[in-house]
Amino acid sequence: MDAYKKAGVDIEAGYKLVDEIKSLSKNNALGSFGGLFPLALGKYKNPVLVSGTDGVGTKLLIATQSGIHNTIGIDLVAMCVNDILAQGAKPLFFLDYLGIGHLDQAQAKEILTGVVAGVDQADAKLVGGETAEMPDMYDHGHYDMAGFAVGIADADDLLKPESLKKGDVLLGLASNGLHSNGFSLVRDILFKQNDYQLSDRLPGCELDIAHELLRPTKIYVKSVLPLVEQKLIQGIAHITGGGLIENVARILPAGLSAEFHLNSWQIPAVMTDLQSIGHLSLADMENTFNLGLGMVLAVRQEDAAKVKSALENAGETVYQVGQLIAGDKKVIIRED
């Protein structure tokens, strides 16, 4: 073990970290060779498991450079469980992977505190994970993360493009800023094209750049899933990589397009600041950022007011942003 430690891998630190995670997650089964989850299928007639995996991307570099690590785990969970929710499924459990150059106990605990918080926000369970200390793979202080989640739904209740119809109302759920997408462009604009520091503040933002960029991705499970289960939602687009255009297009069936009215919701100041500083076109913005909408829900006209009210009562900021129209699977954002 001493030889391994001299090579840069501290096994004892890894053991201590597992004990920390057990305490944080209140799951004493962590540390086994496989994660266990009791699967109750009583209410499902034709159960389907829905899985999702993702990472956080170059947002991790902002966490590394700023030394702020306690929210990046929420991003990791959110990227997986929001995708599962978009299928109409309930997230059940989550596993994480942390690859790190040197296992600093305090840093790793901070990272995984975020993972535990995210799992709790998703009403799921952390059943396992892996921490790999690889000093020759990552520079000191640097790390990478990946996550894997599994959810469940009845096959008949999965959200399908065929359920959508002309006239359905589009409701947008406010994002918590940039979430976890577009950070290569963000970093290029702020730190390569310009000489901003993480301690600086952008003109329209209340927080400094580090804290503004590290706002965690919002997890929508607890507010949206009850409405899915009540069959009040016909389709969900999780607005991630590719921005508003690409992700809404993914849920459209043949014969329908989505029409948005840009003045019907609030675009976060961080995005308008980036647009101005980086001289970005509206097309650049639409295809990169969520534009302030973390999720877009398609609902029947007669259900729109009820759904909007329920979401607001659950703490969401909700905008009626558009509707489905006849078309060829296009996403149209009108500036009028």
Automatic annotation (TrEMBL):
Keywords: ATP-binding, Cytoplasm, Ligase, Nucleotide-binding, Purine biosynthesis
GO CC aspect terms: cytosol
Domain PurM-like N-terminal, chain residue ranges per copy: 48-153
Pathway: Purine metabolism; IMP biosynthesis via de novo pathway; 5-amino-1-(5-phospho-D-ribosyl)imidazole from N(2)-formyl-N(1)-(5-phospho-D-ribosyl)glycinamide: step 2/2
GO terms for MF: ATP binding; phosphoribosylamine-glycine ligase activity; phosphoribosylformylglycinamidine cyclo-ligase activity
Listed GO biological process terms: 'de novo' IMP biosynthetic process; adenine biosynthetic process
CDD domains according to UniProt: PurM (cd02196)
Boundaries of every PurM-like C-terminal domain copy: 165-332
Subcellular location, record wording: Cytoplasm
Residue stretches spanning the membrane: none
EC number(s) per entry: 6.3.3.1
Catalytic activity: 2-formamido-N(1)-(5-O-phospho-beta-D-ribosyl)acetamidine + ATP = 5-amino-1-(5-phospho-beta-D-ribosyl)imidazole + ADP + phosphate + H(+)
HAMAP family: AIRS
UniProt family annotation: Belongs to the AIR synthase family.
Name of the featured protein: Phosphoribosylformylglycinamidine cyclo-ligase
Taxonomic lineage: Bacteria, Bacillati, Bacillota, Bacilli, Lactobacillales
Protein's gene: purM
